[in-house]
Amino acid sequence: NISEVEAFIDTTKAEGGGDAAEDIVGGLHEATKLDWNARYNVLLHFADAPGHGRGWNCSLSDNYATDDAISVPTSRVANAPGYLRDLVSKKVYYHFIAVDKPKYTFETVGKIREAYVAAGKGGRFKEKQLGDLKAEDFSRRLVNEIVNSISMSIAHG
């Protein structure tokens, strides 16, 4: 139900942090633990900030710029290629959607794309830039992108 998804997105709030970078590698680790046994498996990654770590970050504030600074081992950048290979082996269609200013996610999406292509399924990785979103358009645009991404994945079966 699209209205329910929009209502859920409207009530979601971002909290925490302390720096601009996000724990994308930790999120990838969590994604590998999901049950990916459906006919079509789609990972939608909406991002408005880069991931932690050198080479993933366009010099926005990052309290965890090196793996040595990251206390949670599963969030270390060195683990990302393995997590991405795992998702590829599970036939996951990975859609990276840059929200707001794509220049902030440029390095991050490049690292993810590179690892996904290296794992042998480059066609299962798509990226899109939504650009700046007005608050009143946010949930509608996100829901539209969810529907479009899933439809595209099914069409490419």
Map the helices and strands:
Elements: H1 2-11, H2 24-32, E1 41-47, H3 80-89, E2 92-99, H4 106-118, E3 125-131, H5 138-155
Parallel strand pairs: 1-2, 2-3
Helix pairs in contact: 1-5, 2-3, 3-4
Strand content: 5-15%
Largest sheet, in brief, is:
3 strands, parallel
Order of helices and strands: HHEHEHEH
The DSSP helix count reads 5
**Alpha-beta content class:** alpha/beta
Keywords:
157 residues, alpha/beta, three-stranded parallel sheet, 5 helices, 3 strands, 38% helix
Provide a quick synopsis of the model.
This protein has helices at 2-11, 24-32, 80-89, 106-118, 138-155, and strands at residues 41-47, 92-99, 125-131. It is α/β, with parallel strands linked by helices.
Written account of the structure:
- The chain has 157 residues and is of the alpha/beta class.
- It contains five helices and three strands.
- A three-stranded parallel beta sheet has the order 1-2-3, with helices on both faces.
- Strand 1, helix 3 and strand 2 (92-99) form a beta-alpha-beta unit.
- Helix 3 packs across helix 4.
- The radius of gyration is 16 Å and the shape is globular.
- The two termini are 23 Å apart.
- The mean pLDDT is 81.
